[in-house]
C-alpha cells in the first residue's frame, strides 16, 4: 500500500470540507471497494439527485473519488462508474497549528488518462 501526505493548504482544506459532510462521507464509503454509478448511489444511500451530483463534483475536485470507467446501456446511454480513490484517510493536528492528511492509496486513475471531466 502506498502512502502520501497532502502539503498544499487549499487541497487539505477541500479534503477536510468533504469529510465534514455526511453525504460526501456516504459516497466515499459506498465507493470504497466497488465502482458505482450515480443511480446506484441515489438508490442505495437515498441521496437526492441534485445533492448527489453537487457532492460528487466536490469530491472529484478534491481528488477523493475518480471515474473508474464508462459503461454503455443496451439502449446506448453512456454513464460513469465512480470509485473512492483512497482506502484510508488519516488526519493529524500538530503544534504549531498544522494539518497533516495522509492517504493509503487504493486505486489509481484508469480513465483519467483518456478522458477529462473539465
Task: Give the oligomer, counting copies of the same chain as homo and different chains as hetero.
Answer: single chain
CATH superfamily: Winged helix-like DNA-binding domain superfamily/Winged helix DNA-binding domain
Helical residues, percent: 25-40%
- Please name the CATH topology: Arc Repressor Mutant, subunit A
Summarize the structure.
By secondary structure, this protein is α+β, with helices and mostly antiparallel strands.
Description:
This protein has helices at residues 9-20, 22-30, 38-45, 49-62; strands at residues 3-6, 65-72, 78-84, 86-94, 98-105. The radius of gyration is 15 Å and the shape is elongated. The protein is an alpha+beta fold and 118 residues long. The chain is 36% helix and 31% strand. The chain is built from four helices and five strands. The chain has a single domain, classed as Arc Repressor Mutant, subunit A, CATH 1.10.10.10. Helix 2 (22-30) crosses helix 4 (49-62). The model is unreliable at 111-118 (pLDDT under 50).
Secondary-structure map with pairings?
Layout: E1 3-6, H1 9-20, H2 22-30, H3 38-45, H4 49-62, E2 65-72, E3 78-84, E4 86-94, E5 98-105
Antiparallel strand pairs: 1-5, 2-3, 4-5
Main attributes of the structure:
118 residues, alpha+beta, Arc Repressor Mutant, subunit A, 3-stranded antiparallel β-sheet, two-stranded antiparallel sheet, 4 helices, 5 strands
